[in-house]
Amino acid sequence: MDYLKALAALGIWPAIYPLGAFVLAFAGEPAHRLRFHPLLALGIGSAVATLVMMALARLGAFVPAAIGSAGWALLALWCWRERVWTKFDGIAASARAHLRRHGRATLAAAAIVAVAGYFYAMYPKESLLGERDEGIYAQHALHLLRTGGSAIDLAALGIAQDPSIQAIEKGQAPELPGVYPTGERWTYQFSAATPAWMAMVGAPLGPQGIFRFNAVLGVLNCVAFYALLRRWLPARARAWAVPALAVFALQPAQIWVSRNALSEPLCAWFLAVGLLAASIAAARRSRRLGLIAGALIGMGCFVRIDAIVFALAAATAALSIAALGRDARQPGAAAALGEAALGCYAVAALAMGYFLACVQPYLLGLADLVVAAAVATTLCAFAAHLAARAPALRAHAARAPRLAWPAAAAVAALFVYALWIRPHWPPYALIESKLVPQLNGQRDYREASLTGIAAYLSWPTILAAGIGAALAAQAVFARQLSPGRAWIMVFLLVPTVVYLWRPMVSPDHIWASRRWLPAVFPACIALAAYAAARLGRRLPRATLQALAAVAALALGANLLWQQRDTLRLREDAGMLASIRAIAERVPRDRVVYVQYSGPLTSALLSGFGVAAVAPAAQNDPARFCPASGECWVVHPKSAPIAGATAVAVLPLQRLRRVTSLEPLAHGTYQEGGDWQVSRIQR
User: Fold this and answer.
1) Global pTM value
2) Which of 121-125, 333-337, 441-445, 580-584 has the lowest mean pLDDT?
3) Is beta strand 630-636 parallel, antiparallel or unpaired with respect to 185-188?
4) In 3-state terms, what secondary structure has residue 181?
5) Helix (H) or strand (E) holding 671
6) Containing H/E element for 677?
């Protein structure tokens, strides 16, 4: 029976493409007519499936076998409707034709993605403790598999009235990491989007599948980035997409995050596919496809609340198109891009409604960011609307090109300031966070953001990105880029500037690189590729391809060598088994008190369904144990409890990588110790 359930749960994966194809067909854009349609269909299908699974998790009806069975049924319906078996010859012929035209580039890209995928999948980080975000996502996924819902029902566990739980709800004791005390049904801190997909991997493959979901997304992000960059670069310079892919796929932050149970890869996936769809919509003058593209970009807000900056980016890009008069010269493309911005606004607003209804404490903790982004987005959207309706507000056709090189000089000056002057010029910014108040008052090192990017991507890449940013600004003002290319360029610059100015994450590396993954790293790499394309545009095609091949080999080898001490590291290996061993040694029908470790308490409570409580009085069992009967306590072996009977002593060791305020830190270390399960008879 377990094998049948696992087989049924697998049905969600082959159903993603048919689901996206159905949505495209419903919108009047048949998938088989669109170039790169597999990526578009996969992106749209994954977005729809994400929303469905989030709704099921909210309703407590998340059943992987039923979801997968529906996927198998959808796949069968699509195969019958499309007569898929009649199209294999055409698909094979198209593949052969593509290999004849772009064979070397395609094989090189496939080799890079294969190497990257190996390092993503074979060495996952297995953390289940909630002192960092990845443990919270993994716990949420395990909870979905066990209960079918996102809420932690304290009444069902029998601990709703425990004095220590009441102390947390009254604010008299610290909250558990990643869990908000919201009555008798506690709420996870983050969106259910990423945990739902992790649970769908874990259902057929077991808990270890949870920690490898982002490896799948990492590979898909590489493919989407490569497709987007090849479409965005000039046709003659598309060879530079291969070295750009090497940097994107093999740089340390991409490898580390793809091994981790974090939400940035899913956000990056929706952004990359959405931008690709926006580019195609502008080229086809399709307003409906533009609306779908914007909705895909806005889906990032359902994954991460800080992705509301994407709505601001869409509004700024729309304003640039209107202010420079591009809508008058190419109204069809401008209309499609306007629909993309509208779709992004709408889905971002729905996402904020989701957080308000389902994860309200998290939204309130980031209210300053959300309100500021919403106000700025509204102002930019209104300005774009006025510029589109009032020709007097647009840049004159002869005036904009005269501003091209001054704009390039301004961008270059800003780049020099951010890279070489601001990191050494006090005063320095300090952390001010409602969500993590214990960090307040410490320096957040935002001034060194660009030098941090250089440490991850390599100095040649970041210097080329600076040149590319200046040349891109010149091209936008000189109207040398198509509306689609200009829109994407401006769009990517907005979150890049925002996240470099305010990273909103702990400043220790490699953690400090998380926020840069969805937009900043891709933008910098794309700008570097654009600089190479502009500077090498007079080179013969054979010379250009040879230079691109050498650059791909050199940059890829340098990035891998840079990670030689952590490239084959499995952080927190065995963590899941260790915590499960503790959960198996404690009773499930009574309260279990966990001393001195909120992260272990939340892992036992939400990950394994143990009625675990962090006692308010940590040192005195007489104050939290019941007056009669048995009292079970999990505590460090180094902190014995007088009169307690030891039931088991279990190790909880962690192999971790060194972090530092200076990127990149090297080396590993071990921490942890023995934990004891004790029983007190009263």
Assistant:
1) 0.95
2) 441-445
3) unpaired
4) coil
5) strand 668-681
6) strand 668-681
